[in-house]
């Protein structure tokens, strides 16, 4: 039965994951409503109502990221691009095309290729969002390897007379279209990587995709993507004065890690220069009242600027319980995400605070490459990659973040 109430698509035209569902609706000529959602990844404000909707409709920990796409129908919600595309393909539609072949074996082949394309998205995302140009070459190599894998599978499935990957336009094409449509413009512009020449099938497939009416209805054009990705690819670095640079690391313009703060004057110097709206302390109960560091909370709270102070104790020697670690990690990433910015994250050495920032990146900013997080930690001399417990803490959370979230 064709739905009498229209499904509602929550999307953002910049997000390639959301565009999978958008394109699927258009390809199958299904009537639907669509609502644009602002995304932090593209320098936009994400509305609180959308986060509330996602948490209500999908009561899991990952829902609070409130990524797109999502489809609302009959008072319920489906999240995640693959779930959305699969649902759209199952909606009854007179004379509507299917995005999967009739043959069960070919259906499996389409899904195998979708998984490899997904990996390619991840590698491209690492490159475009990397804040450190020293990582560009290894990230480009990783992306090229993933491109090679995708093209090897296309070699296997695509016959010489096929316009698309398989004989008919399929979910594999639905996955590939938004990737090529954005990154053919964005990667050469911002990271000097020509995605179209990196894979031998990409140009001919893109030529075929551009002729499809559904693609023409959703494509936004080169300028839109170049301008839209300006924030996502930005490498703007906040510079600190020599007075505090030795004990504060700038992780991104609005997030700082305080490493070795040893006096009220240093706390006051941070507040005066950074002008934080929030301060997250990770000192243990013993450290917070001890002679060496007890001044931190009182100094922050007494400052006339009204910095919001919170403390989330963490003992790096007590990280053997994975269930407790998961709860602690979620509490930390929520605190960093919700903290008014700029925010300072602080512990006694920067080690625990650096690990907290790493898991925040993995969960809310789609930095899912553990090695890249480790390199960032080392570059800022945060020490957590050298600590067995903290290293495992971050590795475990990266695995979890990969299992629940897409990039947008």
SS element count, helices: 19
Structural class: alpha/beta
Give the overall pLDDT as a whole number: 91
End-to-end distance = 32 Å
Give me the side-by-side strand order of the main sheet: 5-6-9-7-8
What is the number of E strands? 9
Summarize the structure.
This protein has helices at residues 16-27, 48-57, 81-90, 104-129, 136-157, 171-191, 195-198, 202-209, 213-218, 222-228, 230-233, 242-245, 264-274, 285-289, 295-302, 322-338, 351-364, 370-379, 388-404; strands at residues 8-11, 33-36, 70-73, 76-79, 248-252, 255-258, 278-281, 308-311, 343-346. With 408 residues, it is α/β, with parallel strands linked by helices.
Structure in words:
The protein is an alpha/beta fold and 408 residues long. The chain has helices at residues 16-27, 48-57, 81-90, 104-129, 136-157, 171-191, 195-198, 202-209, 213-218, 222-228, 230-233, 242-245, 264-274, 285-289, 295-302, 322-338, 351-364, 370-379, 388-404, and strands spanning 8-11, 33-36, 70-73, 76-79, 248-252, 255-258, 278-281, 308-311, 343-346. The strands form 2 sheets. It has a 5-stranded mixed β-sheet with strand order 5-6-9-7-8, with helices on both faces. Strands 2-1-3-4 form a 4-stranded mixed β-sheet, with helices on both faces. β1 (8-11), α1 (16-27) and β2 (33-36) form a beta-alpha-beta unit. α13 (264-274) runs parallel beside α15 (295-302), α16 (322-338) crosses α17 (351-364) and α17 (351-364) runs parallel beside α19 (388-404). It starts with 7 loop residues before the first strand and ends with a helix.
